[in-house]
Each structure stands twice: as C-alpha cells, then as structure tokens.
Amino acid sequence: MLRVVIADDEVKVIQLIELLVDWSSFDMQIIARVKDGQKALDLILKEKPDIVITDIRMPSLNGIELVERVHEADLHPYFVIISGFSEFEYAQKGIQLGVEDYLLKPLKKKDLESVLHKIQAKHQKMNQTDAEKDSLIDQLKESQKRVKSSFLTDVLIQHLSSPLMMSPDQLDKKYGCQLISPQLRCLVTHIYTDDIRNTSENQEQVSFILPKILEILESLLTPLCDEVISIIGNYEVITLIGYSAEDPQMIYEALGKLKNSFINYRSIYSSLHGVIGISKPFTSIRMLVEGYQDAERMLFGRFNREGTFLLLSQDCGIDTKYPGIAPSYRKTVSTKIELLDAEGFCNAAEKYFDYIRYVSDNASAVQSAWSSLCETVIYGIRLFPDAPEDISATAEELSLAIERIYSLESLRELFIQSACKIIEQFTRVKQALEDKPIRDAKKYIQEHYSEPITLETVSHEVGFNPAYLSTVFKKSTGQNFLEYVKEVRIEKAKDLLVRTNMSPATIASAVGYTDLKYFTRLFHKATNLTLNDYRKLYG
C-alpha cells in the first residue's frame, strides 16, 4: 500500500483532498497531514512516504523548496503540486524538478483521480522492472556460482588435471575463482546413516539435506574466507576454502555452528549423522586432489570418535604407526569365497573387523584395512568368471557401504549380511551349473527311451565320463542311472496302456524292450499289476 502525506496551509484544502477520492481503491493510505513546509520536510525525512501532495505556497518552506530539500536528502517520493493559476511559473519549475504532476485550484475529483491512476501505474511498472532486475541479478549470481563450482567438478569428479595447472588469472577468467590466499583447505561434510537398508527413503532424506548444508556452509564461511567453493557429491558436500588468517579457530567455530543446524535436522531424520573431515592446510591448488583425499581420510576417524562433528588430522591419529593387516587374512577370506564356505568367510571377515577396531584411532589404517577387505571380496568374485550381474552389483554396493554407514558395528552387520548373500548367490549359480548335465541326461532319456540306452551313450551326450555321471546322477536324483531309465519306460508304458489299444508286445517294443517276458516281469514288479489288469483298471 502506498503511503501519502498531504501538505497545505489551508485545513479546508486538506479535508477536500481527503474526501475527494476513495484512497483505499488506489491501494493508498494517508499517513499524515501538515500545514507547514518545514514540518512537512521533517515528517518526510522521518516517515519516507511514497507520495507527497503539497501546495506551492506554505509557511517556512514553499512547495518548490520542499521538493529540492527532499531530493537533496536522496529521497524521491512521487510529488504532486497544487497551485493557483497565477502560480503557474512555480508549477513549471516543479515539473523541471521531476514532480509527478500539478493540480490547479479549485481541485476536481477527476483530475486528482487521473493523477493517482498515473502514479499507481508507474509504481506498478517500476516494481515489475525492479523485480525483473532482481531476478536477472539472482540468475547471474547463480550462474557465476555454477561456473565457480565447475572447477571442483572438473578436478574432483571429472578427474581433469588441466585446471590445476592454470595460473590465478586463468582460473579467474575461466571459473571466476580467486584462489590466491596463502592457505587452502578442503572440507568434506558427509551425511551417514545407521540404517543398513539402502532405501529410497534414506536417499531422499540425504538428497533433501545436502543442499541445505551447502547453503549454511557458504553463509557461515563466506564472511571469514577469501574464497568458498562448494559442490554436492555422493552423500557429501565438498568445499574448498581460501583464507588468510594464521589461526583457523574462527573457521572451526563457524563450522561448529553448522552442527547446531544439523541437530535440528536430526530431530526429523533421527537415523542420520553428520561429520566434517578437514584436510591439512595446503598452499597451491595443485595439491587440491591430495587435500580432498586427506579430508576424506579424516572421515574414517568417526569409528573411534562417534558423536564428534569436526575431524582434523591431529585428532585422527594419522601419525600413529600400526602393523599392516596379515596377508593370511586376505588369503583366508578369498579361499572361503572360492569354497563357498559362508560360515568360514564370516569368521575370517570378523578378524578384519577386529583389526579395524584395534586401529580405529588411526583413520589411515582404518581406510587401508577396509580397502583391503573389499578388494579381497572382489578378487574372490573374479575367481568365478561367469558371475551374474546381480552378484557384481551386490559387491559394488558392499564396497560403497563405507560412504553410507556411520558406525563400525552397523558397517560390520551390513558387510556380513551382504557377503553371505553373495556366497548364497554363488552357491545357487554353482548348483545350477552342476545340475545342468543331469538335466541334459534326463532330457536325453526322455527323448530316446524307445532306443537302446546305456550309461556310456548318455555320458558321451552330456560330456562326462560314465563313472562321474553315475556318481553325480545318484547324488542329484537319489536313483542310479538304470533305475531312472526303467522308471521312465514304465511310465511311458502306463500311458500307452491307457490311451491306446496297442498289444503288450508292441508297447514293450515302443518303450525300449525287445523281450516281452522281461518287460512283463518289470512292469508287475513296479505296479503289482499285470499289463492287462492295469489296462482294465485304468483304461
């Protein structure tokens, strides 16, 4: 709503202006009425109205002087001058000073309404223009921000090395980055969960929080740093800062404020945890990749410092020396996978986690042990060249679990669960591969039961030697080879007895027997019925 001041030394004129139009219909409100030029000036400087309707002739200051003094104070309300015909020269001067319009006495309703309509339209257009200008400025800032962020994307996500070789001027020209500060640091603000299920709900929660974290980070760090560049990665916000202060304590304190904001999010998403890994300071952008890796490494320190929000190198035992994990651990794990020994694998994996607990105050040692364990599992999977895609996908998910899971115990639970799933999948695959020759043998018998069938004939068809086929056939079916052949032939004979009028001799020949008496004895032994009795009973 536009705020209006009326200045005139005649009370009747003020009252006339008030009553002449419906001010609310113009979205305007009269906030003051004054009868003196100086008082009008004081009021305008204090209240900063949008519209001033003033008479030319007033005590202390005339209307023209009032306009000049207000403009000198760098205020520019819409001025409307009221004048008599004899004061037209004053009105002309007012127009030269940029007043909106002038009205001749006696005032007429249509003239005042016309002026107010004009002011209203101009104000709306100006607001629209300002809004468009603000929108363009916002778009420009966002575009500049994206260009600046693309520096981190190119180096850390696309793995391009060329940006790291640029001079400060080249960086400024291409990315708009001002990376000339004496100290640089990489920060990784990572969101974890204790929910071992990789659900879409968890992913949506993290996707919702990360942009909020980025916005808060930049608002906290920008006043303290010469440069702040951030991008959103996988479960994390990666930030590069450049600063001049020798003591980064103020930066740490600002990051501590981020913890308070994150606590508010945890009241909604209770399974989520936030941790910031902070690299050691470095002096050249050519060390950016190492700085990022350093910050990522700090995140492994969370296992020994649950609840800690900021993880720095001096807190994560980087310089503490530990013996590496025994090579026998790696060999045992891969062997258990090869043997598809789920229980043995779990016991071997537990030794890895015992070691990780032992070295948990050293982020580098934890990272190395975890990488070794995942590489061993992947190596074990590669021992099976025909591993299905779903097994490889499970292994990939397993190796990425460290990016998702907060606590070591939750990570251990997920690892054991996923690894056992891999072994179960392999077991099914192996069983299917082992069963294939048996299925092929059965198929051959079903299709050639009327012909002379021997173990040697079928073994040749499926590519096994007879002794091995005999063994695995009995193990798979619970019957020896000849028993299965006899069963198939008897079942076919039953079908022919019921469906056809073929003679017993013809049926015997049709199911692979040339000796009718021998076939008859076999049929009776299998069914406790003669051929004719079976036909009478079921035919």
What are the key terms here?
58% helix, Alpha-Beta Plaits, 539 residues, 5-stranded mixed sheet, elongated, 5-stranded parallel sheet, Rossmann fold, 4 domains, alpha/beta, 20 helices
Please give the structural blueprint.
Elements (H helix, E strand, L loop, with lengths): L1 E6 L3 H10 L7 E7 L2 H11 L3 E5 L7 H10 L5 E6 L4 H9 L4 E4 L4 H49 L10 H8 L7 E11 L6 H22 L5 E6 L3 E8 L5 H18 L5 E7 L9 H11 L11 E2 L15 H12 L3 H17 L4 H20 L6 H11 L8 H41 L6 H8 L3 H12 L3 H19 L4 H7 L5 H12 L3 H8 L1
Parallel strand pairs: 1-2, 1-3, 3-4, 4-5, 9-10
Antiparallel strand pairs: 6-8, 6-9, 7-8
Helix pairs in contact: 2-3, 7-8, 10-11, 10-12, 11-12, 11-14, 12-13, 13-14, 14-15
Mean pLDDT: 85
What is the CATH level 1 assignment of the largest domain?
Alpha Beta
Number of separate structural domains? 4
**Second rung of CATH, namely the architecture of the largest domain:** 2-Layer Sandwich
Quick overview:
With 539 residues, the protein is an alpha/beta fold.
Written description of the protein model:
By secondary structure, the chain is of the alpha/beta class. It folds into 4 domains: 106 residues, Response regulator (Rossmann fold, 3-Layer(aba) Sandwich); 128 residues, 2-Layer Sandwich (Alpha-Beta Plaits), CATH 3.30.70.270; 104 residues; 90 residues, Arc Repressor Mutant, subunit A (Orthogonal Bundle). It is 58% helix and 12% strand. The protein is built from 20 helices and 10 strands. The strands form 2 sheets. It has a 5-stranded parallel beta sheet with strand order 2-1-3-4-5, sandwiched between helices. A 5-stranded mixed beta sheet has the order 7-8-6-9-10, sandwiched between helices. Helix 7 packs antiparallel against helix 8 and helix 11 packs antiparallel against helix 14. The longest helix has 49 residues.
